[in-house]
Amino acid sequence: MGNATFPEGAIVLRAGEGRAYALGAMRSVFKADGAETADTYSISEWWLDPHTPGPGAHAHESNDDIFYVLEGTMTFLLGDQYVDATRGDFVRVPANVTHDFENRGDVPAGVLNIYIPGGFEREMEGIVAWFAQQRAAGGD
Fold first, then answer.
1. C-beta neighbour count of 48 within 10 angstroms
2. How far apart are CA 104 and CA 83, in angstroms?
3. From CA 92, how far away is CA 81, in angstroms rounded?
4. Contact predicate 97/62, CB 8 Å
5. Which of 16, 32, 65, 71 is least surrounded, with the fewest CB atoms within 10 Å of its CB?
6. What is the C-alpha separation between 44 and 83, in angstroms, rounded?
7. What number of CA atoms fall less than 13 Å from residue 37's CA on the CB side?
8. Exposure pattern of 113-138 as b/e (b: 16+ CB <10 Å)?
9. Is pLDDT at 139 greater than 70 in this prediction?
């Protein structure tokens, strides 16, 4: 990027850059959120090691979750159905739909997530702490 001057609000991040959160065999990297997007959306990558469960079944009261598979195969729970999504596949989860994702495969899997409207990043500190407690209790 050198000495380039970008327009106000423009964000350029190289591969792997962003605000990273370690969650055991799952990790996330937030690319744009909060004040950067006026809380209208947050964008993050989620990477799971082989044979790794995701965050657990949950629903968002007023947020859509958009997923685009970057690598590997991610298995999504949508309501009461599972679907495998591979590189290049797109999954939209509307508000109030129970969902989860996991990597049942033998290679790492990653998704790009767009959370609309934004604000999810405010939960990350508590989520990281919860995963650390689970690991300490032998739940990982």
1. 26
2. 12
3. 14
4. no
5. 16
6. 21
7. 19
8. bbbbebbbbeebeeeeeebeeeeeee
9. no
Q: How many CA atoms lie within 13 A of 100 on its CB side?
A: 14
d(CA 64, CA 115): 6
* Residue 131 to residue 112: CA distance in whole angstroms: 21
Instruction: Give the residue among 75, 78, 113 at the shortest CA–CA distance from 98.
Output: 78
Per-residue pLDDT of 33-43, as tens digits, reads 988 999 999 99
- All structural domains of the chain, each given as residue ranges with its CATH number in brackets, are 19-136 (2.60.120.10)
By residue count, the chain amounts to: 140
Q: Note the pLDDT of residue 73.
A: 98
Write the single-letter amino acid at 18: G
**How many whole angstroms separate alpha carbon 6 and alpha carbon 76?**
37
**Residue found by looking up tokens 């195969």 in the block:** 73
